[in-house]
Amino acid sequence: ELPRPPTNMPTTIERCLARLGLALASLAGCDDLDAEWAAVKRAYFKTALKTHPDKGGDAAAFRKVQGAFEALRKAYDRGCAEPSSGFLFSASAAQSAERELPAGPESDIPSWDFYAEAAEEAVPMYRVERAKSARSHCQAKGSAQASQCSRDDLISKDELRVGWLNSESGTYGGWVHLGCWRVPNRVWLGLPDPTKCSDVAAFQSALRGMGSVLLSGLAELSGSEMRKLAHVCMNRANWARRVELKDRLVAAPSGGAAATATALAKATGTAQGQGRSSAPAGSNSSKPSSGRSIVPAAA
Questions:
Q1: Read out DSSP for 213-257?
Q2: What dihedral do alpha carbons 166, 27, 218, 69 form, nearest 10°?
Q3: What CATH number does domain 126-268 carry, 3.40.120.10, 3.90.1010.10, 3.30.1740.10, 3.40.50.150?
Q4: Closest Cα partner for 166 from 262, 42, 44, 295?
Q5: What's the whole-model pTM score?
Q6: Using CA atoms, how far apart are residues 134 and 157, in angstroms rounded to an integer?
Q7: Per-residue pLDDT tens digits for 245-265
Q8: How far does Cα 271 stand from its chain's mean position?
Q9: Contacts of 81 by beta carbon, 8 Å cutoff, 6+ apart
C-alpha cells in the first residue's frame, strides 16, 4: 500500500490562489463571494487542463493544484454556510487554510476528459438535497429502479432527491429519487473505476471533489447521506451513457452562450427528463446559490 501524503498542511488563501495562477488583484472586480468563486474555478480548470498528467504534467505537482483548490472550496462552503461572516477570498488573503492533499497513486487522478467536461459548467448542473416537502413528483425514466417508480410517485419530505439545472429558468427541477438517478457521464468520469475499487470512502471523496463545481448541495448532506449517494454512484448499472462534449457543442452553432448552455443542458440530460426547456409542474424548483451580496470582511 502506498503511503498517504500528509494531510491538513497549513497554507494561506493567497498561496492557494497563487497555486492556481490567480492573483489577488484579479478578484478586485468581483462583487460577491459567488463571483470570486467563479473566477477561482476558471483559474483552477485552466491550470488543471494544462498540467494534467494525461497531457504530460507532473502528477505530484498536479496534486498540489488539487489540494489548493480543495482548501479554497472548503473556505467557499464555510462562507456560504455563514454569509453573515462576510467572508471574501480577496479580503482574507492572509487567512490560514487547511489543505488536504488528495491521497493515492497517480491512477486515482480523474482523467483529463473529466476536467474538460467540468470546466464547461459555470454553476453546478446537478443538485442533491433533502426534499423540502412531499410535493415533487419523481421524473425518472430509463433506469431499473425507475421502472418500478411511477411518475406520479411523490418524493417524501426529507428523502434525498437529485435535480438538474434548467439553463433558461436558472432553477433546479426535474427531481428524481436518488435511487432513480441516472448518473451523468460528466459525474462518473470523475469517479474511481468500480471494477477496480469497491471502497465507498473513495467514491465519497471523489464526489466531494465535485462539490460546488458539478454537484450542488453536498456540503449540506450528512455522512450517512453522502454514503447513500456514493453507493448509487459506484453502481455502473446507474450510469447514463456517455455523450461526447463535441457532440453537445455542435448542437448550438449560433445564439451565443445562452444557446450553448441550453444545448449542453439538453444534450447532457438523460431519458429521465434532464434538459427540458422548463421545470415540470409540481417539481418544487429551487434556485442555485449565486449573486449573493456579502459584506466584505474587515482587513
A1: TTEESGGGS-HHHHHHHHHHHT-GGGBPPP--HHHHHTT-SSSHH
A2: 130
A3: 3.30.1740.10
A4: 262
A5: 0.76
A6: 5
A7: 555 545 444 444 444 444 344
A8: 21
A9: 219
